[in-house]
User: What shape does this take?
Amino acid sequence: MVRGYFVAMSNITLIIVIVVAVVVVAALVVVGYRMAQQRRTAQLRDQFGPEYDRALDQSDSQREAESELRDRSKRHEELELRSLDSSEREDFEAEVTQRYREARRIAQANQDGNVDTEDLRQAVTSYRSLVQALLADDGDRNRDSGTQTEHDNNTKPDNNKEHDNQVTEREAKA
Assistant: This one.
């Protein structure tokens, strides 16, 4: 009887030790997961700065926002970034700088409430031209790509100007 008592006691002790070990391992996994999650969050905050908070505000959850930011980071890593050689830099700098400054001036005036619809249309046109200048191939830059320069806009018939203004206003609202 005493021997049976020790066998039963050792089985109970073994079960208790196994249960405690499983609970400890589960707790370590949960703590490790939380620490890794906090580390990823801290890395994203450092990498994206204020954009991290903006992404949080625009998404339904922290998980969704961080997923979007990780996707952005992966897309950025896949880009082939290179420095422009001197001839490329000369070709782009003047137009890009002019378009950027013009659009930025209007955007800042808009924050102060000092612009009208025409100014906003001009800002959208400048940003569009800026993006096209940055993305266009050397040979494509001078071709008509579906958008007009300011000179082209001034020489178009009035009915086409009105249509373009309506389209641009819709784009500005979007």
